[in-house]
Amino acid sequence: MRKIIIDTDPGIDDAAALTIALNNLELKVEMLSTVAGNVNLDYTTENAKKILDFFEKDTPLAKGNSLPILREYEDASQFHGETGMNGFDFPESSRKLLPKHAAVEIKNRILAGEEKVTLVTIGPLTNVALLLSMYPEVKPKIEEIVIMGGSTIGGNTNTSAEFNIKVDPHAAQMVINSGLPITIFGLRVTTRALLTRTDIEKVKSLGRAGEMLYSLFTHYRGGDLDQAGLMMHDICTICYLLKPEIFKFQETQMEVAVEGPAAGTTVADLAGRYTAAKNVKLAVEIDQKQFRDWVLAEISQLK
Ligand code: RIB
Ligand code: CA
Fold first, then answer.
1. Residue 128 pLDDT exceeds 70
2. What's the predicted TM-score (pTM) here?
């Protein structure tokens, strides 16, 4: 079992990614941590509690940063609804959080274990940047950082910046230049990780988890259900851990613009024209049908 820690801002596509990760026997989710992103930190944390309650998991949960490191916080509630998981009536949660900030709790968890841990980030990178900055001693115990974020094909917040990176570009720049193995899924691939109306109708028939996800998906504005389909950005990170062969990658040097109108834009030297350095493994292709089939198979196996 691969040990992973997921930092998340649920968020409807986050909820789907967490659903698969928490229930797949090849993954050991050591803990979850929440960050302000799609919606504010209180909502993302309550949403993470509700997902853990829904699947009756005892996975530890830590609350992280309510604000980006330097920039003013902006949310994406227009895509996920005011609560971040509009569409399904989860019961209120009485789950207790780990006592300290996510960066401290992730550090404690990484240093306590014998084996290396993979960090999976499916929201802004604030918590992970703070972790690496405050506790660099964790780095030898991190196998890889798998990121949903960035774009080499234009933005989804403006013409150039993808949301997770735009919310906290300073954090993103710190993480991708940490020297750790970075695998990054940007919009070039995640906007092609699509579930169509036909797929969503199949999800509806896949047990209580399928009904819950169907309710969320019908309220998710990340794509057009009756055209190309809904973009399952965050699921790409989990799919990579379990079925990497459906993606193709290119190693490249990526930098993040941190100030001005281009803040949050990720720039990749894909032609290798400006430097021999390569700090990330960038996903460049996805087998769309295999992705769809895999998502439906994963959900169909849930209890
Ligand atoms: O740009 C897509 C990313 O922003 C996804 O992680 C989605 O959940 C939002 O956080
Ligand atoms: Ca997310």
1. yes
2. 0.98
